[in-house]
Every structure is written in C-alpha cells, then in structure tokens.
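User: Design a sequence. Structure:
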C-alpha cells in the first residue's frame, strides 16, 4: 500500500487500502473497495486530497510503521472536541486529552518509528485537528530521541495537541499564539510549559518570529520541537516529504537550533514507505520499509522486484521522488 494524491487514483489498477472518512469521521468507503468516479468526486468535494491505496507496485508494503487508525481518529476527535469546548466558552476536555496523550505515548514508546496519517486523507473540516495530532506524534518521537522522560513527553504532547487552540477564539493568525497561551495557562492541571508551546510555536531562534520576536535561549526547546514539527507537517501537505525535509534542514541555526533540527532528521524519514523514488542510476523504485537508518530506507527496484537496503548499499543514492 502507499499514499497517493487523489487525482492519481486509477480505478482500473488501484483499490483503497485504508478507509476514507466523511466530515464527521465516519467510514465513507471501507478498505479493499474500488472507488467509483462518482464517489471519487464526493471525496474531493469534502476536501480529501490523499488516498492510501493498494496496487501492483505497492503490493507487500504494509505501512506497519503508520499509527493505528482507530487510535489516531480517537485523538483527532478529542482535539476537535477541545476546539469546540473553547469556542463555546466551556472547560477544556482535559481527561479526554490526557487519555489521548496516553494512547500516543503507548504507541511511541513501544515502537521504533511511528508514521502519522496525512491530514490530507481527512475531510477539510477535520484537517486542523489531524494536523495537531500529527505534530504531537512527530514531537513525541523527537523528544524520545532527545532522552525526554515520560512526564516531559506528556507535557510536550499536551502542548502540541493544543498548540493552535487559540484559533478557536480568533481568526487573526498573529493573535492565536497569545490566545492559546491564555487558554492553556488557565488550566491549573496543565504544566505552564505546555502553555508556552502554544505561545512560542511561531517564534524563531533569530528573532524573526511572532508574537514577541524572541530570540536565542528565550525560545524554549519544547516550543522549538512543536514549531519544527508543525512546519514540516504543513510543508509535507504541499510538497513531497523529501522536499519538505530539505526545507526544514535549511532552518538549522536560524529558525531552530541545530540540535533540534538534527533530532528531527533522526526521527522523521524523508522517504516514508510507499514513496516512489528514482535512484541515481536512473532506475525507478519504491520504498518498502525503514530498518536501521531513518534516511536510508529499503527500496524495491520496480523493474526487477529486487530489494536493497540503502543503509548497507552506501553507494546507491536516491535523487528524488516520482
């Protein structure tokens, strides 16, 4: 299986490998179905831009690295409830958020790699909440790489799930970090550091961010982790993952510290399983899995079916995705 832009779907050669969901997070089309053109147009109408499909080229690729969909959906819906509560001037559903964090932590701590589900697989109205969950998933892996203990990871995850909560009360982009900070710091059960994640996630190391244009050590590490994960998730929504990764790597020492950028690169693959790629030799291939090196995956040559581990074959290089 592999993710594809919805416009590349071919009903003659592909079928759904993962369900498609409607605006309320309910199954619209189940896995193993062939998508009729009429339903394809319906998916486009509700803002779905990515499908996870099975075809001849991706057969045998399990995407076992991807987070469990029911778990992911549960947390997405919890974040949606949090936004609705804040918009309605009601208390944050803290118990649900804490349970969501516990589910994510269980996945992150028990597996070497967890891939988020692209937010573009969801209806447009759910994408902001899916984004928050994906940021939390990546941030937890970065924190794990940096040696954070479980309590630190919980505080990091709560802040990431709620980093855009200010958007529930303001439509002004420049104002939502302050609004989010005020909302979260008003919950005494939540660590103030989690509130600062919402406050600072649009800041930059060089002082070119907002809302306060802070610089250097004033830009907290937790907020840097959230900021870099949010940046990547937004970029990967529009660009191939390896191009999004290149943009992120270019922020080292300017937007984010070198240590945070390096930790991100260690934990997020530029070529996730299911990505079709071109090798320097001119051969086309597809990434089947990631084993020992995040940026040197196992690749199947499409012409021959031969699999090679780029972590072992150091002279074989990927030139880009196709």
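Assistant: Done.
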């Amino acid at each position: 299986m592999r993710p594809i832009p919805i416009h590349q779907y071919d009903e003659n050669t592909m079928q759904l490998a993962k369900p498609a969901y409607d605006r309320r997070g309910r199954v619209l089309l189940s896995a193993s179905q062939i998508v009729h053109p009429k339903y394809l147009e319906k998916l486009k109408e509700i803002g779905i831009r990515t499908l996870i499909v099975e075809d001849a080229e991706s057969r045998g690729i399990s995407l076992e690295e991807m987070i469990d969909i029911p778990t992911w959906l549960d947390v997405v819906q919890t974040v949606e409830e949090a936004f609705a509560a804040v918009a309605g001037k009601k208390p944050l559903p803290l118990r649900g958020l804490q349970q969501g964090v516990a589910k994510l932590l269980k996945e992150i701590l028990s597996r070497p790699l967890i891939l988020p589900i692209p937010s573009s697989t969801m209806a447009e109205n759910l994408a902001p909440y899916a984004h928050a969950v994906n940021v939390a998933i990546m941030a937890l892996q970065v924190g794990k790489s940096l040696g954070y203990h479980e309590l630190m990871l919980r505080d990091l995850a709560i802040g990431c799930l709620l980093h855009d909560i200010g958007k529930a009360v303001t439509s002004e982009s420049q104002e939502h970090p302050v609004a989010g900070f005020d909302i979260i710091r008003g919950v005494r059960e939540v660590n103030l550091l989690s509130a600062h994640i919402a406050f600072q996630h649009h800041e930059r190391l060089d002082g070119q961010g907002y809302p306060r244009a802070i610089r250097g050590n004033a830009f907290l590490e937790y907020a840097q982790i959230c900021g870099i994960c949010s940046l990547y998730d937004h970029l990967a929504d529009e660009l191939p993952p390896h191009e999004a990764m290149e943009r992120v790597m270019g922020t080292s020492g300017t937007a984010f510290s070198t240590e945070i950028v390096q930790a991100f690169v260690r934990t997020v693959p530029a070529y996730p399983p299911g990505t079709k790629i071109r090798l320097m030799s001119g051969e086309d291939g597809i990434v089947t899995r990631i084993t020992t090196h995040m940026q040197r995956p196992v690749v199947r040559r499409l012409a021959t079916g031969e699999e090679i581990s780029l972590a072992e074959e150091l002279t074989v290089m990927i030139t880009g995705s196709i």
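The mean pLDDT is 96. The CA atoms of residues 133 and 161 lie 6 Å apart.
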